[in-house]
Each structure stands twice: as C-alpha cells, then as structure tokens.
Amino acid sequence: MKANPSKRALRPLILACTAVLALCGCASVGEKLDGWLASSTQASAAVGARVLLGQVSFTREREASVTLQSNAGPSLTCFGPLRFNASTAGWIDLACSNGQAVRVSFQSLSALSGTGRGLLGGSEFSLTFGLEPEQAAAFLEVPVERLVDSPDKPVPAQNPP
C-alpha cells in the first residue's frame, strides 16, 4: 500500500520542526550546564604597598572574570577577563578604578589556580588565584595577615628587615 501523498509532503516539515525544537533545547541545556559547571576561587594581588582581594569566576572552559578590590587605604578596584592562550598560560586584562590598566601574564598551576605578573603604572602587579593564603602571600611577598584580615581593620606598616 502506498503512503498518502499529503502525508509524504508533511514529512520534511515535521522533520524541520523537530530539528528546530531539538536545537532550541540544546541551547538551553548548554546554558544550564555552563551554570552548573561554573566555579569561583579567591584571588589576591599586590601592587606597591597595596593588597587587593577578590575572586575569579570561571564561567566557561578557559574563560573567567576577575574582580579585585583594595583591602585598606585608598580604594582601588580592578576587573576584567581572564583568557588562556596556551594549555597552561594566558593573560588577564584588568581595568582599574584609577584609570590605569594592566595586562597580567599568568601561568596556571591547576584548573582553578595560577600566578602572574604585570605592570600597573610602572609598578609591578603580582596576582594569584586559587591558592591558600600562605601560598599566595609567599608569591606576592606580603605577610599572610594582609590576605586574611577584614577590609575594615587597618594594616600596620611593615618595618624593613
């Protein structure tokens, strides 16, 4: 028995509609997966005598956003994207509230941790993310207390050795 000609004409239309619905479903599933797979980790930076604290929020594979804020003294906020340009290296382009910008070249130590350096207005800008305060303090060359104190607590001046 032959198929009804009108049913045969509807097959491409039904297939096209099914494909469109499937693709729309994939987009929303992809967005949900991105949200579920998102990760955040703490970040610390030092520039001159200033220490900045914040976080790195990984939103997609090999992409993240970085936000940092000074924890004492005059306010300084920096934010920007983190991007990998190799399997374990990349850069972070930060725009700061003082009108300056810094590109920090970093080396990842794991999927969610790394260290990097750049120049902000002629001063070295050192950054860590995903490290314990003791490890971050060693890289940044600051006392660990500066990375764990509350932002409202004044930080005592260091005496040179």
Fold and architecture overview:
Helices cover 28% and strands 43% of the residues. An eight-stranded antiparallel beta barrel has the order 1-2-3-4-5-6-7-8. The longest helix is centred in the N-terminal third of the chain and has 33 residues. The chain is elongated. The C terminus is likely disordered.
Give a short overview:
The protein is an alpha+beta fold. It is 28% helix and 43% strand. Strand 2 and strand 3 (63-70) form a beta hairpin.
CATH topological fold name of the largest domain: Lipocalin
What is the general shape? elongated
Number of strands: 8
Topology as a string of helices (H) and strands (E): HEEEEEEEEHH
CATH architecture assignment name of the largest domain: Beta Barrel
C-alpha end-to-end distance: 97 Å
Strand order of the largest sheet: 1-2-3-4-5-6-7-8
Low-pLDDT windows of residues: 150-161
CATH class of the largest domain: Mainly Beta
Strand % is 35-45%
Q: CATH H-level name of the largest domain... which superfamily?
A: Quinohemoprotein amine dehydrogenase alpha subunit, domain 2
- Structural domain tally: 2
Q: What is the number of helices?
A: 3
Radius of gyration: 24 Å
Q: Could you say which structural class the secondary elements and strand pairing correspond to?
A: alpha+beta
Main sheet record: 8 strands, antiparallel, barrel
Mean pLDDT: 81
Binned, the helix content reads 25-40%
